[in-house]
Fold:
Amino acid sequence: MSLLFLYTLAFVTGFCLLRGLWLAWAPRIEIAARKAGDSPRKNVFRESMFSSLIHWAAELLEGFVTKQKLQRIELKLTQAGRPGGDIKGAEYLGVVWLAAASGFSFLFLMLNISASGFLFSLMFATMAGALIYWLGLVMLDSWVDDRKLLVSRQFPYFLDLSVMIVEAGEDILGAIRIYIRDNPDKELTEELQRTVAEIDLGGTLEEALEHLNARLVSEDIQNTLFAIVQGRRKGTKMADILQNQAESMRFRRSQTAERAAEELKVRLQGPTILMMVSVLLLILGPAILDIAEGGLF
Structure:
C-alpha cells in the first residue's frame, strides 16, 4: 500500500510540475495586450527565475533535436496563438524536458528510499518521465485544437460583417480594421492584428493573408482566405467573393450541425436502452424475487 501511495504521489507531482510551470509562466495574452496591437510580446520563460536553466536546456536541445522537429514545435506555438509570448520551439521543448527530468528524479529518489530496488526504480521512473514528456506535447496539441475551435466560431461573424462593409464601399482591409476595433477581446482579432501589422510594415495584403492562411488550421477559413487572395489577383469583385464564401460557409456549418445531430441520436440509443432496462428491473424486480422464492402460485 505504501508503494502504491508513493507511485501515485510521484505521478501527480510530475504532472502538476509540468502544468504548474506553464500556468505560472505562460498565462494567456490579456485583454490589454490584445489591444496593444503589434507591440512586441514578452517571453515569459526569459523573465522567469529559471530563465538561465531554460536557456541552457534550449541550447542543449538545439544540438540534439532535428531542425524539422523544432520547426514543427514553432508552428504549433504559432497556431496556438503564441501563449506566453515569443517563445521559441527549443525553449518550450526545454521546459518539457526539464519537467520530465524533475519527475524522473523525484520518483527515482522516492523509490530508492522505499528500497524498491535500483532496476525497478530506474524503469518506473523512466516510464514516468516519458509520460510527463508526452503530456507536454499533448498539451500543446490541445491548445492548437482549442484555438482552432474558437477562431472557427468567430470567423463566420467576421465574414458576414466584411460582406456588409465591403458592399457599403469599404475595402477588405477596412473591414479587418473595423472588426479589430469592435472586437478587441477575440482570438481572431489577435491574428488579424498581426496581418494589419505586416501591411503597415510595408507588406502587401495578399502576402499578409497568405501568412494568416498558414497560421490558421481551419480548412473553411483557409479556403476563404485562398479565394480572397486569388480574387484580388484576378480582379474579381470583392463583394461577390465574400458573399459566395459566406453562403458556402453557412451551408457547410449547417451540414456539420445536421451530421452532429444524427451522430448524437446514435450515441443516445445505448444510454436510453440501459435506462429503460433499469426502470423495468426496478418495477419487475420485487415480483421476480417473490416468484423465485415462493413459486408462481
